[in-house]
Amino acid sequence: MTPILDMAGISVTFPGVKALDKAMLTVLPGEVHGLVGENGAGKSTLIKVLAGVYAPDEGVVSLGDEKHISTLTPNLVHTAGVRFIHQELHLVPHFTVAESVFMGQEISGRFGLDKSTMNARTEDFLRETLNADISPRTLIRDLGTAERKLVQISRALIDGRATLVVFDEPTAPLASDEVDRLFAAIGGLKSKGIAMIYVSHYLREITHISDRVTVLRNGKAVKVFNEVSDQITDPMISAMVGREIAEMFPKKENTSNKKLFEARELSGMGFSQVNFDVAAGEVLGIAGLVGSGREELIDTIYGLLPVTSGSMTLKAEAYNPKRPAKAVKAGVALVPRDRRHDGLVLDQPVIDNINLASLEEVSTVLMEKRGVAKNRAEAMANQLDLRPRNVTMIPRLLSGGNQQKVVLGRWLAKGGDLFILDEPTVGVDVGAKVEIYALIRELAAQGSAVIVSSGDPLELLGLSDRIMVLQRGFLAASHDAKDVNVDSLVALTTGGSSGAIE
Amino acid sequence: MIAIQFVRKLLEWVPVAVFALMFIFLGIEAPTLFTPFTIDLMLKQAVPTVVVSLGLAVVIITGGDDVVSGGIDLSIPAAAIIAAAIIADQVTNHGTALPIALAFALLAAITVGALNAFLVVMIRMTPLLATLASSVAVVGITKMITQSKRINVTDPFIVFLRDGTVIGLSAGVVAAGLLTLIYWFLMHQTRWGMQAQATGGGREAADISGISTKRYQAISFLLAAFTGFLASMFVLARGSGSSPGTEENLLLEMVLATFLGAAFSPRRKVTVWGAALGAVLVAMLSVGFKSIGVNVFWTGCIKGALILIVVASAAATTRGRY
Hints:
- The complex is a heterodimer of chains A (502) and B (322).
- Chain A has 502 residues and is an alpha/beta fold.
- Chain A is 35% helix and 25% strand.
- Chain A has 19 helices and 22 strands.
- In chain A, the strands form 5 sheets. Chain A has a 6-stranded mixed beta sheet, with helices on both faces. In chain A, strands 18-19-20-15-21-22 form a 6-stranded mixed beta sheet, with helices on both faces.
- In chain A, helix 5 (145-157) packs parallel to helix 6 (176-191).
- In chain B, helix 2 (36-63) packs parallel to helix 7 (171-188) and helix 4 runs antiparallel to helix 10.
- Chain B has helices at 2-29, 36-63, 76-93, 98-122, 127-146, 156-163, 171-188, 191-201, 203-208, 213-239, 246-264, 272-291, 296-318, and strands at 151-152, 165-166, 169-170, 241-242.
- With 322 residues, chain B is an all-alpha fold.
- In chain B, the strands form 2 sheets. In chain B, strands 1-4 form a two-stranded antiparallel sheet. A two-stranded antiparallel sheet of chain B has the order 2-3.
- Chain B has one domain: ABC transporter involved in vitamin B12 uptake, BtuC.
- Chains A and B meet through strand 8 of A and helix 8 and helix 9 of B.
């Protein structure tokens, strides 16, 4: 069979990074092709090459009958029938479903907009192709997330000329029953003979809906699975990570049993009646989808959001910070999820960023002790293996992994009793991840309690001693990490003991 | 969460409720207010505000309704009065023929619009600041033209706009009605309008749908300036000439009318017809207060408070993740 898309030997270089290294991807007509890989493996770069956003340094892209297209442009790709369903919805809240579907491609009659035709075509498309019953006159703001996703898909496909649809993490914001609606829609598209590329972190979804799977690692297509079943999950993970999973994560040595932080019947914005505790030397993982209350819980412990009921205890004393400054004073440290905005002063040199939380130790009343500060920062840079090891550089110019190391370094310099890490390795390459994991375990080994909130099941499993799962604001489960695996953890987060898919 | 949504729904109705209460109050205090004669008077009074409000509606629809970062054009009244001043000065002081005077005025108004478009789209200034600055500058130039003096205009066309009638209705009112219809059709019934709405509703969403959002925003400022030019004729008609200080009240009423219109629209969004309706209601209030003898300064104070209520309720209902 002639492939509908054949990308061969694609290389893309960004300043200092080889994002794609002779990567390949072949999609056959009418198939759902899974594309997996860790963050930074090159998935989005490959997709952007296909979209005509990045021009590859070398390689050939063949689309359908058009062979050897070396210079793709967004227009050319669109004309060839390739459509992209981005992760972000990009919808206008006060538009109706039909207005959103026809945005930019409105149908106009002699007397202005032909609203009835647009409504009718939207309704037909949703019902017949996506198996969904949504009124075209509903406002987007009155729809659920899955329905909005379907509207987004309709917009891309309403012209009926799509031959290949690329889904980028389509289920990320969806709850379990909503995932089924999306899959019903994908089933509808497949029955119309449309080929799809499905990019997702949820391996269970990949094995459920894909016909074939390509695994990317470090910019290379390391493995293609031509037969897909539940059995390939583990080989898929090994191919993604590039080593046995156990090797990525440091040894867990938890000896202490002294409870350091406790939450009792804790309720706040977005979560309620959550009970848990963390011991000194322990790493507690928090799992949960977007909207599960995971972010809000973290923010509440750090004093960014108010407690509405229940109580917290830190070192056997009642704890209710109300403001982050008080949390820091009590010995709590937050490594925020958006380190660029919340975690770093991007244009101040690394030296200042590292010393920011412990200024009182490097300064007298009026004067900063620059020498002391510099020595501390340099020692820290060595310990963190910061690259480049230059403490006068400004963080804006560092890679994501190294930026994160600077934030971690600040709290290592300061010390603390309770560390909260929110998505600590988002946008960080695999090598730096391993170093960050080692640092996190190091924090625990020094006798601190660590809470890691993450959307990456593998990370939670490898790093945590215990994992608690939040679902729609409630504590759904709490397990020793050794009692769960990636599949059961994904199942627990997405709801239902057997997961979303069955 | 349900409680929050309920409060939000309630807040949406605050402006409508406040206006309803005021009209009930006026109806009781001055029962003669709602006779055909006074209604016609009030509509005539409303015409300049209706016209500039159409322009502001276009800018807000295309730029988004966030009061700070969205689209706003505070310079439309300034464009209107500089155009009015030019027409009055040319016709009365220099004896220029009206069409030529109008051409000069149009050029001046469009220049203001182009300046705004340049500042906002190319320089990327906040519309609020850019148009405030151009407004202040334009008002200054206007004072130089008129030397801060009143200039009477007795041109027959302008007088016709004031006193003439078309099928039994005031010519000015008919003209403003037609204009509302044209702007409504453009913004709500054409592809161009839908894409302008998309630009204001979600810049990124519009961009990835292949809509050239910059062009839409630039054109919105030109369309707004054009309403400023059109309004200049009605300003001259209403005041029988150009008089200094007209822009202040026009600005106040325009902002109030346009945001008030959003409270009446089903989607709670600024619309063309909403802005026109808002302008009529605001003019009725002004006339109403005057007729029951409320001090002019109080009227200004009340309008200011109303703007706060309307804009604050709009902000409160759209605000916040939590």
